[in-house]
Structures are given as C-alpha cells and as structure tokens.
Specification:
seven-stranded mixed beta sheet, alpha/beta, three-stranded antiparallel beta sheet, 382 residues, Aspartate Aminotransferase, domain 1
Length: 382
C-alpha cells in the first residue's frame, strides 16, 4: 500500500499522484519500466552513439526477437503510424519527404473501413494523408475495398483487435490479398497485440507491410513504440524519422518525434525480456491481484464483482464491477467519482454507455490491489 514517501516527487511539484487501477493508459503515464529496462538505460547513458546506427542495430535485434524481417524504434505506436503513413506516401524520394505534409502530386489517400474508424486514426493524418472510408457502418465486403482503391491510394489501414474481432469487418487476410493484388501496401495498428507471443509480428508474417506496437505494454518507457515490417517498408519509414532528419540532413516530418538513446536501448531490453519471460507467472500474478480486489466485495448487496478472464493483448485478467444503484444506493459513476476524489485518488474505468466499472491490475504496485478492493467495499457498505 502507498507509504509515507509514496509519490513524493509529484507532491513536491504540487501534483497529486494516483493509484492506477485503470491500466496502461497514456494519460496516467503508461508504463513502469521493468528492472531489465532501467539497467539497460543506465548502461546506455555512459556513452554517445550515432542515432542512425543505433536505430539500425536496435531494429535488427528487435526483428530477430520477434521473427520479422525488420523493425524500427519510434516515439510510441502513434509515431509509428505517422511515420508509416509518410513512408507510404513519399517513399524514398527526398523531395517528397521534404514536401510533406503537403501531399500535392502524391498518392495521399489512406483507406480505412468505416467500421474501423477509431480515436487514434488521427495519427495517420499528421503526415498530410487524407482518410478515405470504405464499406458501411453495417459491414465491409471485398467489393467495397476493390471499389475504393484508386490512383491516389497510398495504403490501406487496418485496426487489429484479437480479443474481440469484428465479424462484420473485412478480415486482414482479405485486406492484404486485395490490396497487394493492386500493388498497395497495408499497415496494421496492433498497439497492444503482444500476447500470446505469436501475435507479436503476426500481421507482418501474414503479409502486412508494417505492424505498429506500443512498447509501453512490454515494460519499456511509455514514449517508445515499434514499427515491425518488411525490409523495404521499414527502410522507407526510417527515412522519415528524427534520426534521418539530422543524420541525412533531409527534413522529414518525424523530427519532433524524437527519442533518446537510452529509451531505444530500453525498448530492445523490453522486447528481449517479453519474448523470454515466464508468462504463466505473469498471468498468475494478475489473477491473484484481481482476486484480492474481489475478496472484500463478496456478499455486499447490489454488487457483483467478477474476474475478466482475458489473456489476449497486454492487460491480463482484471475485474468487472456491476453496481445496482437501487440496492447499493450508489451508481457505478458515483463509485468511480468517489474513488477518484479520495485520498489517495484511485482511478478506475467507466466508459460512456457502459453500466459496469472496469478495473485493471497492470499499474498496481504491491498491496494496492487490496487497497482498491477495500476502498470500494467501504464505499458500498456505507
């Protein structure tokens, strides 16, 4: 549980630290680098190195660990999406690279299924691309994609969610088949698709040109991401980056998306650890933490706490909390708001339109699982 020195560095600044029962989310800091990553970053701090060379060697190592042809370390998965978009539009033409985000005279359309529009597709537009929807809100067919492809198409974007695949969306396999038949590349946002391990790089092995991953889920710094892909696609993506901006003196759009050498080495260490660690123990720990939250909630009238048994992606297990306001005298929203207003504040999840609270253990420190359960129990017992 939080001790007397918990969060002191934030309190000294006048900011309030929180207990993170929401998961690996950017707005709460995203990740806690694992010891292996912190050690690698500390070792990296002892010397300087040309960043283009480090990107190349770090990418080679990550590609080996994940069994894909090539990889590149980026400033988060969002940066990977932006750089991939730029690569598909400008390729290795230095004049076009420097022309972006002005896409005059280029293939500048990124096709995306209407059913797959989502919060982070904004990252595709930052390079100057125009998003073009295909399919309807009800379903997407092969014909929809075939009819959407045209002379301005730079790439097709796909949003991959293994945990709950959309049965009415065009599959990735069909997307790759149709796009490649027309000479059009495919990029996949697979930010959290890292477990089971075969998901890590799966879409590249299926034939996608680039797969984007958020390294924060692996215990790397929140500000790191990975682009996995074909050698040609990753080579062109690298030309858009901050390292190429300085190393080649070609002004690509990636200059603001800078990462340091320590973070790059940390990302490699995180991937190596993830691919070799005991995931059964990781999952068992998450299950124990979830049960520790549930235990004090048993028997409270109007309250149903169940463990989510998901192990796909990055956030294993967790707790689904349903509150009957007629019996418990508090709604789910009341519980979330009161937890956040408490001392220490506890952040949990309640999405718009949902009637249950989602609790993840990804960001909980030792003992904080019991604290979360006990605080919720105290609220609901009145």
């Amino acid at each position: 549980m939080p001790g007397s020195t918990w969060g002191d560095i934030y309190k000294e600044l006048g900011a309030r630290p929180v207990v993170n029962a929401l998961g690996s989310v950017t707005m709460l800091g995203g990740s806690t680098p694992i010891p292996e990553v912190k050690e690698a970053m500390e070792r990296a701090n002892g010397a300087y190195i040309p960043m283009m060379e480090l990107e190349e060697k770090a990418g080679e190592a990550i590609a080996r660990y994940t069994n894909v042809p090539a990889a590149y370390v980026t400033s988060g998965a969002g940066s990977a999406l932006t750089l991939a978009t730029a690569a598909f539009m400008a390729g290795d033409d230095d004049e076009k690279i420097q022309q972006l985000p002005d896409t005059s005279g280029m293939r500048n359309e990124i096709l995306i299924q209407k059913r797959q529009r989502y919060w982070y597709d904004r990252c595709l537009q930052l390079a100057g691309a125009r998003l073009v929807e295909f399919g309807s809100a009800e379903r997407t067919t092969r014909q929809d994609l075939e009819q959407a492809l045209g002379p301005k198409t730079a790439a097709v974007h796909y949003y991959a969610v293994e945990r709950s695949p959309d049965p009415f969306a065009l599959s990735l396999q069909e997307t790759i088949e149709i796009a490649h038949a027309h000479g059009v590349p495919v990029m996949v946002d697979a930010a959290g698709q890292i477990y089971p391990l075969e998901l890590f790089g799966k879409y590249v092995r299926m034939g996608a040109d680039i797969q984007c991953v958020a390294a924060k889920y692996l215990g790397a710094p929140q500000s790191t991401g990975l682009a996995l892909g074909t050698r040609e696609a990753i080579r062109k993506l690298g030309l858009q980056s901050f390292a190429a901006y300085e190393g080649r003196r070609v002004r690509g759009i990636g200059r603001p998306q800078k990462i340091d050498r320590q973070e790059m080495v940390g990302a490699v260490a995180a991937v190596k650890h993830w691919m070799t660690m005991d995931h059964e123990e990781r999952l068992a720990k998450a299950e124990r933490q979830s049960q520790a939250i549930i235990a004090p909630l048993r028997g409270i009238p109007g309250v149903k706490a169940t463990m989510m048994d998901n192990i796909l992606g990055h956030q294993p297990y967790g707790v689904r909390l349903e509150v009957d306001a007629r019996v418990a005298r508090l709604s789910a929203r009341d519980v979330v708001d009161r937890l956040k207003a408490g001392d220490p504040p506890i952040w949990t999840g309640l999405r718009d339109g949902e009637d249950h609270i989602t609790i993840h253990v990804f960001g909980l420190n030792e003992g904080e699982d019991r604290l979360v359960g006990e605080r919720i129990a105290a609220l609901l017992r009145g």
